[in-house]
Design goal:
Layout (H helix, E strand, L loop, with lengths): L2 H9 L3 H6 L7 E2 H8 L3 H13 L3 E13 L1 H9 L2 H8 L5 E2 H7 L4 H13 L3 E4 L2 E4 L1 H8 L3 H11 L9 H11 L5 E13 L1 H17 L3 E2 L4 H5 L7 E2 L18 H15 L3 E2 L5 E3 H4 L31 H12 L15 H5 L1 E3 L4 H10 L7 E10 L11 E10 L5 H14 L5 E5 L5 E11 L4 E11 L1 H8 L5 E7 H9 L12 H6 L6
Helix pairs in contact: 1-12, 5-10, 10-11, 16-20, 18-20
Bound molecules: phenylalanine.
Phenylalanine (PHE) binds next to strand 16 and strand 17.
C-alpha cells in the first residue's frame, strides 16, 4: 500500500477505531484493549473487526478452559462450607443428626456429604445418630481448609485449571466431585495483532491525532451549519463498502399487497366492491345459483356445514318461491328445472361460503332496475372442505366480478377479463368451454405465462343463466360473471410451487420476497 492509501485509510477511521488503534501492540487481548481504551468491550470488538476488514490487523480467537464457582459454590462464599458449619454446631458438645442439619442449615445431601468428609478427616465421631467433634476437628475448625482457600481464589478471579499448584489441585479434585460448587467452562479470548499496514496506519493516525484530531468530525450538526463551524472541520469519510447489518423495513404481507392491488385494479375499471359474511345459507351459496340440491359439491367432503347455528334464515318468500320453482320445473325461466321437489330445509343449512359467487347472487337480488348498468367485484375469503396438499388450501381467497348490463354480451366478458389480466401482466388470454351450474355459456380462462411460456388456467367465467337471473332480478338481464382463486395467481407470480408456502410466514421468505407487481 502506498502512503496515500494508508493516509486515506486513517482519515476514514471511525472514532472507535481511532480510539483502539493506538493501544494495539504486537499482540493485544480484547480484555487489555478494553481496559486501555476505556471503551465497552462490544465497542472494542466492533472496532477490531472493522480494522480487520481493512487488513490492518489479524484477529485470533482462542478457547481456554476456566474454573468458575457454581451456584452452591457462590452460596458457600457467604455462608461457609457445609462441613465448617457442621463442625461449628457441635463445637460445644454432641448433637443429634437432625438438630445439626437444622442448625447448620444443610440439605439432606449436604449433611450426608459432611458426614463422609468429616469422618475421613477424623474430625468427628458418630454414635447412634449423634455426632461429636474430635481434637482433630477442633483444629480443622480453626484454620482455613485448602478447599476454602481455593473457593476464595476462584471467587476473586476465574482460574485456569492448568495454573493450579499441587495442593490446590488436590482441593480442586475433591470439590469437583461435590455437587454445584465449581464448574468448568470454556472462555473465548480474542487477540489482535497488527499487520505491517496496521503498523503504518497506527503511526500515521498518531501523527494525524496530534495535528488536528479535534477537527475530524463524524457528523454534521445543525449547530455547525448555523455558526459556520463546518468550514474548519475535517469530515470523516465513510467507507461505503464496509459490511453493515441488514435492515428489514416493515412491509405489508405479500398476500395483502396483492389483495390491495387487485382491488385497486377493479376500482380503476369502475367496479364497486361487494362484501358479505363468510357464513351464509346454502340458499345463497348454492340454490340461488341454480346448483341442484343433490349436486356433489354440496356434499360434506366438499363443503363445511355449520353445526351451530345449523340453520339460517331464508330471504323474502317471493324470492324463495321463485328459486324453488326454478329448481322444480323452471317456472317462468324457460327452463325445465331439475325436476325434483325442492327442500327448504336443505336451503336453510348454514355453510362457510364455498365461493364468492354467493356475493354476486345476493348483489343482483338487491339491485334496482334504475341502478343498471352496474359492475361489482370482490376479493374475499372462502372455504372448501378439501384435503390440504401442495395445490389445495381449505381457506382461500377468490377474486369475483359481475357486470349487470342490458347491453352486455359474451364478448364484453372477454374484454373485461382481458383488461384485468393485462393489468396483472398477462398479455395473452384465451378461453375454453367449461361447465358451471349457474352460467351458460361457461368458460375457463387461461393466460399465457410470459416467463414459464405456458398457458395456465386462472379463472372460471360465464353469463348467469336465466334460472339464476330471473328469480333474483325478476326479469332477464345479461349478467357477466367470473371468479378465480387468488392464491393460484400469487403462487404463479412469485413462483411458489407449494401453495401452502404462501401462508408459512417464514420470516426469511417474507423479508426477501419481491414486492407484488412493482
Ligand atoms: N364460482 C366459480 C369457482 O368457484 C367461478 C365462477 C364464478 C365461474 C362466476 C363462473 C362464474 O370456481
Amino acid at each position: 500500500m502506498t502512503e496515500e492509501d494508508i493516509k486515506s485509510i486513517t482519515d476514514n477511521l471511525h472514532p472507535l477505531e481511532r480510539k483502539v488503534l493506538p493501544h494495539i501492540g504486537k499482540t493485544s487481548s480484547l480484555k487489555e484493549l478494553t481496559e486501555k481504551s476505556g471503551l465497552k468491550q462490544v465497542e472494542v470488538m466492533r472496532a477490531l473487526q472493522w480494522l480487520e476488514n481493512k487488513g490492518l490487523l489479524e484477529l485470533h480467537s482462542k478457547k481456554k478452559t476456566i474454573i468458575e464457582l457454581d451456584s452452591n459454590g457462590k452460596e458457600y462464599t457467604e455462608k461457609g462450607l457445609p462441613e465448617k458449619r457442621f463442625l461449628r454446631c457441635i463445637r460445644d458438645g454432641w448433637l443429634q443428626f437432625d438438630e445439626i442439619q437444622e442448625r447448620a442449615g444443610l440439605s439432606r445431601e449436604e449433611f450426608n456429604v459432611c458426614i463422609g468428609v468429616l469422618k475421613r478427616k477424623a474430625a468427628i465421631e458418630v454414635k447412634e445418630k449423634k455426632a461429636g467433634i474430635t481434637g482433630q476437628g477442633l483444629k480443622i475448625l480453626e484454620k482455613k481448609s485448602l478447599e476454602e482457600q481455593l473457593i476464595e481464589k476462584i471467587h476473586k478471579t476465574k482460574t485456569d485449571p492448568e495454573s493450579l499448584e499441587d495442593e490446590e489441585r488436590f482441593a480442586y479434585e475433591s470439590l469437583k466431585k461435590r455437587k454445584g460448587i465449581i464448574k468448568e467452562s470454556a472462555e473465548k479470548t480474542v487477540q489482535a495483532s497488527l499487520t505491517e499496514e496496521g503498523e503504518r496506519a497506527r503511526k500515521s493516525a498518531a501523527r494525524g491525532n496530534r495535528k488536528k484530531d479535534k477537527d475530524v468530525v463524524d457528523r454534521l450538526t445543525p449547530g455547525m451549519i448555523r455558526d459556520s463551524a463546518w468550514k474548519n472541520k475535517r469530515f470523516r469519510k465513510y467507507d461505503i463498502t464496509s459490511p453493515v447489518p441488514r435492515i428489514h423495513g416493515g412491509k405489508r404481507h405479500f398476500v395483502n399487497q396483492a389483495i390491495r392491488d387487485i382491488k385497486r385494479v377493479w376500482l380503476d375499471m369502475g367496479f364497486s366492491e361487494m362484501t358479505g359474511p363468510m357464513l351464509d345459507t346454502s340458499f345463497w351459496n348454492f340454490d340461488a345459483l341454480f346448483t341442484a340440491q343433490d349436486h356433489p359439491v354440496r356434499e360434506l367432503q366438499d363443503t363445511f356445514y355449520i353445526k351451530n347455528p345449523e340453520m339460517g334464515k331464508l330471504p323474502d318468500s317471493k324470492t324463495v318461491k321463485r328459486v324453488k320453482r326454478a329448481h322444480e320445473d323452471g317456472g317462468d325461466t324457460g327452463s325445465k328445472g331439475w325436476g325434483y321437489k325442492w327442500s327448504e330445509e336443505e336451503a336453510k343449512r348454514n355453510v362457510l361460503r364455498t365461493h364468492t359467487t354467493v356475493l354476486s347472487a345476493k348483489t343482483i337480488a338487491r339491485l334496482k332496475r334504475s341502478e343498471l348498468p352496474a359492475k361489482f367485484f370482490s376479493v374475499a375469503k372462502c372455504f372448501r372442505n378439501e384435503a390440504l396438499d401442495w395445490t389445495h388450501l381449505f381457506e382461500l381467497h377468490q377474486i369475483e366480478g359481475i357486470v349487470v348490463d342490458p347491453d352486455a354480451n359474451f364478448r364484453h366478458l372477454l374484454g373485461y377479463l382481458r383488461e384485468f389480466f393485462r393489468k396483472l401482466g398477462y398479455d395473452k388470454v384465451r378461453v375454453r368451454p367449461a361447465y358451471f351450474p349457474y352460467t351458460e355459456p361457461s368458460a375457463e380462462v387461461e393466460v399465457f405465462h410470459p416467463v414459464k411460456k405456458r398457458w395456465i388456467e386462472l379463472a372460471g367465467a360465464g353469463m348467469f343463466r336465466p334460472e339464476v337471473v330471473k328469480p333474483l332480478i325478476g326479469e332477464e338481464v345479461p349478467v357477466l360473471a367470473w371468479g378465480m382463486g387468488l392464491e393460484r395467481s400469487i403462487a404463479e407470480y412469485f413462483n411458489i410451487d407449494d401453495i401452502r408456502n404462501i401462508y408459512n410466514n417464514d420470516l426469511k421468505m417474507l423479508r426477501e420476497i419481491k414486492i407484488w407487481r412493482d
